[in-house]
Design brief:
By secondary structure, this protein is of the alpha/beta class. The chain contains eleven helices and 16 strands.
């Protein structure tokens, strides 16, 4: 059997942000409607949590595909030539279980994560939101900036991260690529003061965003933490926000930004207003007023990876991209 290998460069070519935002909206809606399955991820940690291997399966009935993302996560790669997230998405069809493609997971993850926040921002941020604070300056910061530019008219970007030199370089890159006002800010508090859009995309283990800093009417995309023992937002930030998630089950099992306030007794499961997919399916209401603070807690879901990989696979076939390799065999009968 032939399996299509689609590399990082090809994924970036085949999955532009504006198209990925629509793919993610469809996948999240399907999940909330019960048309997709997304078991909790399995994570194998190396000693002293120096790195991890995450395994994330999902199934999407409408597209008749299933898949598995296997991804290594090494936050220490910041100062190396390697991405912090590396691996592949293995795509299968569901009639015979035949493998179709292996798609670069670094590119998928970088694009689809920002795209999901783009969906949430489109649904929850004020229509006039355009003062963006970016806490973080890595791969996800770049993807989130691109997504925010697709769904809102961004007037300026303030960037903070540690080490500060990374934030300075990020701002220089933004200034070269986009016609927007970008500023390096030396403190997280100053970066978010007065902002009406905040994206937290750091590898921080302790809160870097305090509730007392957040202005009324702000929308927050909290993305950096995807494990129960780290968080980017303090308890006050979560308590004062209307919380929306990518998936309830994942949030109550995996999201440190939710679990820390819950363990402290500040909130319970009812603080989750609903899933983004439920807003898309018109089952729940999103933003209700100009003044309320909305928070989208993203963990990253396998159904997003499978949806993106299937979209890339389909386009790769249309455009003649990717490389076929022999993998497995058919059963021979006489």
């Amino acid at each position: 059997m032939k399996v299509l290998i689609i590399n990082h460069r090809e994924v970036s070519q085949l999955l532009p942000m504006n198209e990925c935002i629509e793919v993610m909206a469809n996948a999240l809606k399907a999940l909330s409607q019960g048309d997709a399955a997304n078991p909790l991820r399995t994570v194998m940690w190396l000693p002293e949590k120096a790195g991890a291997l995450g395994m994330m399966p999902a199934y999407w009935s409408d597209q008749k595909v299933m898949g598995l993302k296997a991804l290594s996560v090494f936050s220490s790669n910041m100062d190396t030539e390697y991405d912090s997230h590396q691996g592949g998405v293995f795509l299968f069809e569901t009639k015979n279980g035949r493998p179709l493609a292996i798609v670069d997971a670094s590119a998928i993850t970088a694009i689809r994560t920002g795209a999901v926040s783009g969906v949430a921002t489109r649904l929850l941020a004020r229509q006039d939101a355009g003062d963006l604070a970016m806490l973080g300056s890595g791969v996800q910061a770049w993807g989130h900036l691109e997504a925010m530019l697709k769904v809102r008219k961004i007037r300026r970007v303030r960037v903070w991260s540690l080490p500060l030199d990374h934030a300075r370089k990020f701002v220089e890159r933004v200034s070269r690529h986009y016609n927007i006002h970008a500023e390096f800010i030396a403190s997280a508090r100053e970066a978010v003061t007065g902002a009406d859009l905040i994206c937290t995309v750091t590898s921080a283990g302790e809160p870097i965003l305090a509730g007392e800093w957040i202005a009324s009417g702000t929308h927050i995309n909290a993305v950096g933490s995807s494990v129960p023992f780290t968080r980017e937002l303090d308890t006050a930030a979560v308590v004062k926000s209307r919380l929306f998630v990518d998936r309830r089950e994942s949030t109550i099992n995996e999201a440190g930004d939710f679990l820390f306030p819950k363990r402290e007794g500040a909130i319970d499961d009812s603080h989750i207003q609903g899933e983004i997919g439920e807003i898309l399916a018109s089952r729940i209401e999103g933003r209700r007023s100009q003044d309320e603070i909305t928070l989208f807690k993203a963990l990253g879901l396998a159904v997003e990876d499978v949806a993106a990989a299937h979209y890339v696979y389909t386009k790769a076939i249309e455009k003649g991209l990717g490389t076929y390799v022999e993998l497995g065999d058919t059963r021979h009968t006489s």
